[in-house]
Amino acid sequence: MTESAITGVDPDESSGRAHQAEAASFGGVLMKVAGYAAMVAVLLLVAAPLFWIVITSIKERPDIYTQPAQWWPSPPTADGYKAATTDIEFWSYFKNSLIITTILSIAKIVLGVLSAYALSLLRFPGRTIIFVIVIAALMVPNQITVISNYALVSQLGWRNTYQGIIIPLAGVAFGTFLMRNQFLSVPGEIIEAARLDGAGPMKLLWRVVLPMSWPTLIAFSIITVVNEWNEYLWPFLMSDDARTGTLPVGLTQLQNNDGITNWGPVMAATVLAMLPVLIVFLALQRHMIKGLTAGAVKG
Amino acid sequence: MASVYFDGATRRHKGNARPSVDSVTLDIEDGEFLVLVGPSGCGKSTTLRMLAGLEPVDDGTIYIDGHDQRGVRPRDRDVAMVFQSYALYPNMSAEENMAFALRNAGMGKAEAHQRVLEAAKILELEPLLGRKPGQLSGGQRQRVAMGRAIVRQPKVFCMDEPLSNLDAKLRVSTRAQIAALQRRLGVTTVYVTHDQVEAMTMGHRVAVLNAGVLQQVDTPEALYDRPVNTFVAGFIGSPAINLVEAPVRDGQADLLGAPVPLQQRADAERVILGVRPESWTVGAQGVPVRVELVESLGAEAFVYGRPEGDPDGPRLTVRLEKKLRPEVGDVLTIAPVPAEVHVFDAESGQRLA
Ligand SMILES: Nc1ncnc2c1ncn2[C@@H]1O[C@H](COP(=O)(O)OP(=O)(O)OP(=O)(O)O)[C@@H](O)[C@H]1O
Ligand SMILES: [Mg+2]
């Protein structure tokens, strides 16, 4: 995810060219080499572990532990995948992950957008105080609230239920914060124009403000989906088995199945767990296009 | 269509010592084109936004069509606004931009389309209706913004410097188009500008605002010929009027040595005399002026200079006809045309005669 996606300000082509021009004027070749070196370094840092996960997942069991390390599996095998999907109730975990992530993401996005909208564009008494409280909530690490949440949720008898996992996680300080700042960056005259044009609050949000905020909203959505998909601690505490456990929880079960960890299936399951978010990311990032506000004011 | 009446409308922004708009009372007739001018920060936009309901009125009130607008929401005022930035919806096509208000008001798709087409025809926007604002030029965006206002057939148009983002040439043609359009539609219009020429050429009447206080509301000619105070005199007209403080002796003001008879308040000690650049005659008698700068515009020329032998004296502007072209450093003897001299009180700056 690029930074521009998060801020919603996309560097367009011309600024790209400006960067190039700047780089060239800085002593051309040297800057270019440095740039590529940095890129390669980042790539190695990010891609090497990923590569290792993938090839481990298709190695035969003894090959995983050989020294020196094998950089290419010979021969590749699908055993790891078979084990990953049969040793544990993989599809059941998968289904739970899907359900919980979907509901949580939708809840978080809707709540985030609506609360941000209220806090940025609607006028009501106590608005600033509410915003400060939201920011304060953002400062509290999740781990701190885990114990009290656990006590509360288990008292309600919600362990091993979807709502037990979903509801405590549905708070959205981050989304409120991010979307509020995005909404505040929408030119005030456009909002006034819409008010004069007789747009009510929902229409203003849906037809005017949100369409100008897609890049930020999509960035927020991707972050949310990835976060919820990978959420580990709380679902792990809330579920004892495959009834409500999510994939990360399932992966732990796979690890501990027979005392020593069989890394082949674990890596295979990891790859399988990665795929859905990867697809979501690829599908959404296309929409983080530039110039959504082009021509709105002046130009 | 409606009349607009500002009744002592005042706006105080938090943290400012003075009101941004200070009890403005202004009567705008049905169908009138009123231009609101004044220097930057004088409260033009604020006045307009109060009329549109985008800014609260802290004191006094505003009537549209005789109805008190206190507590009336912007959307219910039936006022259309053209913003300086145009404020088009970037995600909608030109047509959707224009139809947005109509659809919000519950008009059917077909009817709204019809209305948009009519407006597009007037504004020559027909081939551009499918384009998004980002695909339009500045002038085209300006017309879409106009279109968005006129499709609504509102009671009042509010326009806040709608031409300031256009280049000089386009501004001239668009200026004429807007004035013609307003005459054709007959919708009461309040037009904000800080451009002299727009103020003098577009409207039926011009309201001059300074520091939130309304100075004078009059036809462009009256504003030029009979400014009520030194501010209006100095603000209207380009190049600006010469304002010179002059002592009074024996019922005559002494304009740098040239006598100017006073009809009124001949007993005052000092007055301020206002002489437009074209109200001088060049001759043998009067004030000798050393020329510092000559601006030749072809048909006419403006000469700037100071009284001879008085380098700290007031800088005077003189308009000359074609035949006379002094050089820098020449001395020109000028005398004011007595009938065209404006006389203002030295303390208050108010017009005396
Ligand atoms: N939201 C605000 N808060 C505080 N002061 C404000 C606010 N809006 C405007 N003002 C003040 O009110 C005064 C009038 O502002 P306004 O925007 O009406 O000026 P203007 O005549 O439109 O100027 P310009 O020609 O530069 O657009 C200014 O002194 C400005 O500082
Ligand atoms: Mg303004």
From TrEMBL, chain B:
Residues 4-236 form the ABC transporter domain. One of its GO terms (cellular component) is ATP-binding cassette (ABC) transporter complex, substrate-binding subunit-containing. It holds the Pfam family ABC_tran. One of its GO terms (molecular function) is ABC-type transporter activity. The gene is ugpC. This is Sn-glycerol-3-phosphate ABC transporter ATP-binding protein UgpC. It comes from the Bacteria. Gene3D superfamilies: 2.40.50.100, Nucleic acid-binding proteins, P-loop containing nucleotide triphosphate hydrolases. It comes from Metallococcus carri. Keywords: ATP-binding, Nucleotide-binding, Transport.
